[in-house]
UniProtKB/TrEMBL annotation:
Source organism phylogeny: Bacteria, Pseudomonadati, Pseudomonadota, Gammaproteobacteria, Cellvibrionales
Listed Gene3D superfamilies: Vaccinia Virus protein VP39 (3.40.50.150)
Complex formation: Homodimer.
Chemical reaction(s) catalysed: prephenate + S-adenosyl-L-methionine = carboxy-S-adenosyl-L-methionine + 3-phenylpyruvate + H2O
Protein name listed in UniProt: Carboxy-S-adenosyl-L-methionine synthase
SUPFAM superfamilies to which the protein is assigned, alphabetical: S-adenosyl-L-methionine-dependent methyltransferases
Binding sites annotated in the UniProt record for S-adenosyl-L-methionine: Y41, G66, C67, S68, N136, R203
Domain of life: Bacteria
CDD domains in UniProt: AdoMet_MTases
């Protein structure tokens, strides 16, 4: 298994901050990057396993869309494997559009793991019958006008009582509160060892790639997609995780 390098991609001044992409350079530092950038990330991953165990139904797929290196789908697989009663002959499928991410995820697969790794655009994926779908910090990278279409495709494939886990960076409806949350997030990143230069250059690179929305917009869209009810189950600063029930 490859060792995890420290994220210093934006530590030196760049004349041109190109758009952020999940290439080999990002993959090499991704575990360190996401832990130091997303408050509460470990809690979201751990609870993804707990929730998957509770809602998985026999003979269905458990999808992790935008799986990156697969921490969330691995959490789900472990949770079901550790509980014989919850081992419900599910298929575990990790999907990511980044070839670098999928290649590394495959390389890091543990012996005995049954996770299927697929490189695919989420918007082009034909979903099989599913009871749990994980969208941890993925929808924010999908064009806004395509987000409802993706959620509808997921809902159509989902059995009654199925679960969607949707984790996102949020923007706040109140501009003053939004500005405060952004400042607090930058303070969090400083506390994790990022410099002001790194924070500024990463923000410039990702501004037109990651487009956050309000919690209210997410909740309304989930209803429009056909989910019967939804709620935020976890939030830290401007990062939140929703659950939505089919």
């Amino acid at each position: 298994m490859a060792s995890h390098r420290r994220d210093n991609l934006f530590a030196e001044l760049r004349a041109d901050t190109t758009l952020f992409s999940f290439n080999d350079s990002v993959v090499d530092v991704f575990p360190d990057m996401i832990q130091r950038s997303v408050p509460g990330y470990s809690t979201v991953v751990r609870m993804t396993g707990v929730l998957s165990e509770q809602y998985a139904q026999p003979g269905t797929c458990i999808y992790d869309i935008g799986c990156s290196l697969g921490e969330s789908i691995r959490s789900a697989e472990r949770a079901l494997a550790d509980n014989a009663a919850a081992n419900k002959t599910c298929r575990f499928i990790g999907i990511d559009s980044s070839s670098a991410m999928i290649t590394r995820a495959r390389e890091q697969s543990l012996q005995g793991s049954a996770i299927e790794w697929i490189q695919s655009d989420a918007l082009l994926t034909q979903f099989e019958t599913t009871s749990v779908v994980i969208l941890n910090f993925t929808l924010q990278f999908i064009p806004i006008d395509e987000r409802l279409r993706l959620l509808k495709a997921i809902r159509r494939a989902m059995v009654p009582g199925g679960l969607l886990i949707l984790s996102e960076k949020l923007t706040m409806a109140d501009p003053a509160m939004d500005a405060l949350m952004i400042d607090l997030h930058h303070d969090f990143k400083r506390s994790q060892g990022y410099s002001d230069l790194e924070i500024a250059q990463k923000r410039d690179a990702i501004d037109n790639v990651l487009i956050p929305e309000t919690a209210q917009i997410h909740t309304a869209r989930l209803a429009d997609a056909g989910f019967s009810r939804s709620s935020i189950w976890f939030q830290c600063l401007n990062f939140a995780s929703f659950i939505a029930i089919a």
